[in-house]
Structures are given as structure tokens and as C-alpha cells.
Amino acid sequence: MARDILSARQDFPILDIQVNERPLVYLDNAATTQKPQVVIDTLRDYYTRYNANIHRGNYAIAYEATEAYEKARAKVASYINAEHKHEIIFTRGTTESINLVAYSFGERFVGEGDEIIVTQLEHHSNYVPWKLLCERKKAKFQVVPFDENGDLDLEVYKSLLNEKTRVVAVNHVSNSLGTINPVKEIIQLAHDAGAVVLVDAAQAVQHIEHDVQALDADFYAFSGHKMYGPMGVGVLYGKEKWLDAMPPFLSGGEMISNVTPEKISFNVLPYKFEAGTPNVPGPIGLAAAIDYLQEFDEQELRAYEDTLLNYGIGKLKEIPGLTLYGNPKQRSSILPFNIEGIQHFDLGVLFDARGVAVRTGQHCTQPIMDALKVPGFVRASLALYSNRDDIDALVESIQRAIKMLKGAKKHG
After folding, report:
1. Which of 83, 73, 72, 74 is nearest to 214 (CA)?
2. 200 and 59 fall within a common domain
3. Rounded distance between C-alpha atoms, residue 400 and residue 323, angstroms
4. 317-341 residue pLDDT tens
5. 3-class DSSP state of 139
6. How many domains are contained in the chain?
7. What is the pLDDT of residues 366-396, one digit of tens each?
8. Is residue 33 in a domain?
9. What is the dihedral of CA 398, 204, 194, 151, to 10 degrees?
């Protein structure tokens, strides 16, 4: 029987702390989520009971560490419905996963005159690696714009696809606007044109559907720390046919099969892409986070987060002088806004004085800011432990900041 979502807060010890003598109201979940006690305990258990390097040692705790690490790989494969567990590559995070594909796939399959399509909604980690690849390979860099609502212009996307398109890189959910992109349609159109698709799922895998086979994604990248797991661990899913054809990204131990002065041969998947000593406890902690997430009914969790998001949107729209950015067809977990006449950074500082944690700035999405013609904005972002009290505390902090700063200007 699935757990009640409202019981989740008790599982996150950091939510009991105080900041500036006020209870922490944590609304920076798009940057990183907090960790449930079970994940913290799992990491402690690894370091205190079976800390060892994996795949090499022939002693008891090395066997245990290796088994836990590989069970984590199988857990991730099942969670995203990969066809094979060896299609799961462990990395340091979404950024490294995307760079792996940009370098490795790009080295083998992208050449002069080819084209790569990204979108204006991308995080820099799914924008810059492809731009740099185009510069190295003398390929053409194409960008799909978004409209006034924050939705991608699919007609422009369709017009850009052609026989020279090699890669389409798109996020499933925008980390700045919360737009849920129609990635299944985007993937199908790309495949019809003969291109492969990398999906940045860093903001999606913990909130919405994550079936890579149903999406037919060629590559799918995400980070453990944004889904209640540890920092420093990420996942790259890649279809077996592409991973087999790609050269290694890093070289060294574990990724080789045979080394002689004459020839080097590479290890089988997934180890070809996991050079050196990995972050062993990272995947083990990520597996614990997945187990935790699966204690809740997935549909109920999505419905809860959507209801809370709509509550937040409604509350923010009532505030005079507040601009809420984007009105996409589908949105997930993100509340981006500015207050007329007040710097977003100043708002963040004033919120912190009330114990409210949000993110301010460009959110590693300068193309979005340029399109909106703003230097940055405040981003409040939700998680399964968020509730209406958090939204109300944010609204109260906004109203207090407006009164304080606009009052000071009036009398200044």
C-alpha cells in the first residue's frame, strides 16, 4: 500500500532545522533536493561497514560493495525502463553525461557540414557542449526558440530538421520556466529525419514520466541529487547500439580489455565508459532514493505536486507588481518571478532572513533570460515534501519585501 505523501516531511531531517531563528522553508529543489534519512543511513552504512573498491578485490567487503553497486545499476535500469542494465552508465551528474555524448558520439558521428539542434530552453550544460562540438567539427548549430508562453515553437523545429541533422538535444522540463516539452513528439520527428536525440531529464525524472523505451530516447541523462539521492552521481542511459559504436570518453583503469604496446582494446558495456575508481556510494545511495520514491504512488505524487504548483501560481498572481514568467501548456514544479522595481538578488537575501530558501539569477539559462529581456529572476521550486505552508511563507516574504523596499524608496 502506497504511503501518504503528506507523511514525507518527517523523513527529511534537514527540514527540522532553523535558519535565522525561523523554520527552514526550502524552495530550491530544482538546484538540489534534500535527502531522506534512509539515503543518509545508506551512505553511512557503506562507509562504516563495507567501504572498498569494486570489481577488483577478492575479499568479502569488496564483493559486497561490487554487488551493491551493480544492484544499483539494475535498479536504475528498472526505474527508467531501460531494455538492458548495461545501457546505464554512472557519471558525476547530468553535465558529465551530456558531455560524454557530445564528445564520444560527436567524435564518431558528427562531421563538417552536419547540423545539431538544441533549444532556447536548455540549461547551459545541454547547450554549451553542443556549441563547442559544432566549433570543433565545423558543424552548424541550430536553436529552436520558445514563444511568449514558454512553449517551444515546433514549427520552427520541424523546419530545421533535415538530412544533415545528426543530434537533437532537448530538456524534458525547463529548469527555469518549468515547461514540460513534448519530447515524445520531438524524438519521433528527429528519428524520421535520421537524427538521434539526447533528453536532459534532470528536472523531469523525479516529477513526470520516465520510461525511456516509451519515449524512444537515444540518450537520457539525469542527476541523483535532484531526485533525493547523493550529490556526485549521475546517470547516462544510451541505447546499446549507440554506446557500442561510440569510443570511450575517458581512459584509464577498468575501461580496457587488453593493453599492449601494439594495441589497446576496450571493455564491454557499461565499463567502457566508467574509467577509474567510481563514486561507489553514489549509485548505492541513488538506489536507496529510488526505493524511497517508489514507496509513494507515482500518479498521486504527480497530482499532489501539480495541485501545489497551481496553488502557488494562483497565490503569486494575486500580488501586485509581480511578473510570473511563462504560461506553458504543461508546467512542472517551477515558480519563476520578479517584482517590479526590486532586484531579484535582494529578494533572495530578504527571503533568507525569513528562513525561505530560493534561487536567484540566470539559473544557467542565459538564452532564456536574453529572450525574456531580464537579467535574471527568482525561482521557487517544489518537491514531494513541499506543502502549502511553504507557499504561504514565500508569499508572506514577498509581501514583506515589497513593503520594506518600496517603502524605503518612497521615503528615501
Report:
1. 83
2. yes
3. 17
4. 999 999 999 999 999 999 999 999 9
5. coil
6. 2
7. 999 999 999 999 999 999 999 999 999 999 9
8. no
9. -30
Q: Is residue 42 part of a domain?
A: no
Q: Are 391 and 311 in contact (CB under 8 A)?
A: yes
By CB neighbour count within 10 A (0-12 exposed, 13-18 middle, 19+ buried), where does 138 fall? Answer: exposed
Question: What is the rounded CA–CA span in Å between residue 110 and residue 105?
Answer: 7
**What CATH number has the domain bearing residue 340?**
3.90.1150.10
Domain stops at, among 293, 315, 348: 293
pLDDT band at 254 (very low <50, low <70, confident <90, very high): confident
242 and 322 both lie in a single domain: no
364 assigned to active site = yes
DSSP 121: T
- Is this prediction's pTM over 0.85? yes
Is 395 in the same domain as 284? no
For the four alpha carbons of 201, 205, 209 and 214, in that order, the dihedral sign comes to positive
Here the contacts of 186-191 (C-beta below 8 Å, separation 24 or greater) are 186/152, 186/154, 186/157, 187/215, 187/216, 187/217, 187/218, 188/216, 189/157, 189/158, 189/161, 190/117, 190/161, 190/165, 191/216
Last residue of a domain, one of 293, 309, 325: 293
Residue 405: pLDDT band with limits 50, 70, 90: confident
Separation CA 281–CA 39 (nearest Å) = 10
CA distances from 302 to 11, 110, 149, 182, 293 (A): 19, 38, 22, 17, 12
Whether the CB-CB separation of 172 and 208 falls below 8 Å is answered with yes
**Which of 123-132, 142-151, 267-276 is predicted least confidently?**
267-276
One domain for residues 335 and 377: yes
**Could you please report the per-residue DSSP string of 66-102?**
HHHHHHHHHHHHHHHT-S-GGGEEEESSHHHHHHHHH
Say which of 43, 364, 374, 395 is annotated catalytic: 364
- Same domain? For 125 and 9 the reply is no
Q: Quick count: other Cβ atoms within 10 Å of Cβ 325? A: 20
Which pLDDT belongs to residue 265? 84
Residue 234 · residue 100 · CB < 8 Å: no
- The residue segments making up the domain with residue 378 are 5-28+297-411
Q: Is the peptide bond before 328 cis (omega within 30 degrees of 0)?
A: no
In a domain, 34, yes or no: no
